[in-house]
Amino acid sequence: MSVQTDRTDTGTAAAPGVRKTDVPPPDDTGIRKGKGKGERPAGGRGGASAPYVLLLPALLATVILLGWPLIKNGMLSFQNLNPRQLILHLTEWRGFDNYTDVLSSEDFWKVVQRTVVFTAVNVVLTMVLGTLVGLLLARLGKRMRLVLLLGVVLAWAMPVIAATTVYQWLFAQRFGVVNWLLAKAGWTSMADYNWFGTQLSTFSVITLLIVWQSIPFVAINLYAATTTIPKELYEAASIDGAGTWKSFTSVTFPFIRPFLWATTFLEVIWIFKAFPQIFAMNKGGPDRLTETLPIYAFVEGPGNQHYGMGAAISFLTILILLALTAYYLRTVLKQEEDEL
Amino acid sequence: MKRSLMARLWPNATALVLFVVFTFPVYWMFATALKPTGDIIADTPVFVPTDITFDHFQKALEADHFWTLVGNSLTVTVLAVVFSLVIGLLASFALARMRFKGRRGFLLTFMIAQMAPWEVMVIAIYMIVRDADLLNSLIPLTAFYMIMVLPFTILTLRGYVAAVPKELEESAMVDGCTRRQAFVKVIFPLLAPGLMATSLFGFITAWNEFPLVLILNKDAEKQTLPLWLSSFETTFGDDWGATMAAASLFAIPILVLFVYLQRKAVSGLTSGAVKG
């Protein structure tokens, strides 16, 4: 999705971790009467192979469509693969040379640093603002909550490329409404400002776009989490003389902490991988200064036709992403072990 | 008294401001698309279009291959979602209802698959698809979009299946249904909201996909709408009216679907994700 969200590719989105807390399903089926008494064991019919048969298609699809590209990517990263080899279907191995070339290039490390900073800034902004919006949703009256929810959902549902195009127009140098507003507000030097002329300003627009589209997921998830908090806990807190802040830190926060964790993790992955927002906004420009790792791998690989190099960069990108999320993954895997 | 009024005003005022902030870009897209060019390039922006025109929409609709690409996008997206629902439902049923050796392993596989960085795997996919002689075809797109949404589908549906009381299924079986009949007649209807939520998010993911089609399908007639839209802007330069009309056309199906299914889908997503 996504999630995106897409989401929201936005949208793509379930949470390998937004779990634990027991929320009742939205559709309460109500009916719960087993009619007869003579129950069969649930796993009964179909024999012991049934689960494997049911899982087979999903597993095959995953192995073929995900496993194979992963392995292929690994193999390509050890090859000398440029237009000549590509056209003639030549396989030329070059050992670790792609990796030594990439790792010793200054550009690569600049891009890594940029990607990490970019991810950090966007994730922090998304989480802080998304949490605030989520808490606000929980506090609003019914009607106002619907209004805000509608706004948030609209931003969420905007397809990424459409949203990117709209932001280009909002921030257009000529006739862009943002420049007009800034000039009207007294900042007259902004009247003809070219947002896509510098690294920082381009990143600002991209950040605004990403945060705007990412807040809804965090806010709605968080709001849903707060609805599961038993009211009695707040009553108890207020009897104990807790103020707003105190009841937040002692009741709300402990409850929403798992959601914050899980959503942070998802946002790190999504934002780190963000491709269309950056690529369609300004092709990684100006002067390749807004290329993050996925864009860099794309431009070096298919773009400049250094496929072997591109594969090495993408392998390193996967490693970096794993390193960034390792801590959280470890906790999830541990939880999973306890649970099963 | 005054303080409580302020305390009530505050969140509502903030919510209103936020509503404007969140909806403005969407509004501006439609507003621009409907304004005559003179109003779009006015020195003072026209915030409420009074003079409405459909010329920009017409221009976008008449752009090269538009309808072919609508067909491509719909085909690829719908097929990917349907396949992932079918395959995912089988898998989620096993994961939610049965005990067997290796269950945890399967679960972890799908959880990790969900993190797959498709955006950086385009080179390998390109090579595979080229070697299979399937560049400029909708088949690989369908297959890869399917696998992009599959892990999400499995994990979310697993939550929904688990939420259906086992007793329902058992009593149906006592009444003489086979396990499969029990599933089709009793469980499946109860899963409708879950299926709706997962397919909505799958739909959005596939509808949005950009890097893969960018590298696999160079042939103008074999592309999908995201590519069309991103190149639209290059083709039409500063024609923001036409560009915003094109963006609207691309966004409308999702916006309609989302707002229509919003209630079910959003609560579905959250509870599904929460249940995992």
Automatic annotation (TrEMBL), chain A:
Chief localization: membrane
Family named by the database record: Belongs to the binding-protein-dependent transport system permease family.
Organism superkingdom: Bacteria
Cellular compartments per GO CC: plasma membrane
UniProt-listed CDD domains: TM_PBP2
Location in the cell: Cell membrane
Residues in ABC transmembrane type-1 domain copies: 112-328
Originating organism: Streptomyces liliiviolaceus
Protein name: Sugar ABC transporter permease
Annotated GO biological process: transmembrane transport
TrEMBL record, chain B:
Record key words, sorted: Cell membrane, Membrane, Transmembrane, Transmembrane helix, Transport
CDD domains the record matches: TM_PBP2
A cellular component term, taken from the record's GO annotations: plasma membrane
Localization terms from the record: Cell membrane
Ranges that cross the membrane: 12-30, 74-95, 107-129, 141-161, 182-207, 240-261
Domain ABC transmembrane type-1 as annotated: residue spans: 70-261
GO biological process: transmembrane transport
Entry membrane topology: Multi-pass membrane protein
Superkingdom of this protein's organism: Bacteria
Record InterPro entries: BP-dep_ABC_trans_perm, MetI-like, MetI-like_sf
Family recorded in the similarity comment: Belongs to the binding-protein-dependent transport system permease family.
The protein's name in its UniProt record: Carbohydrate ABC transporter permease
Organism name: Streptomyces liliiviolaceus
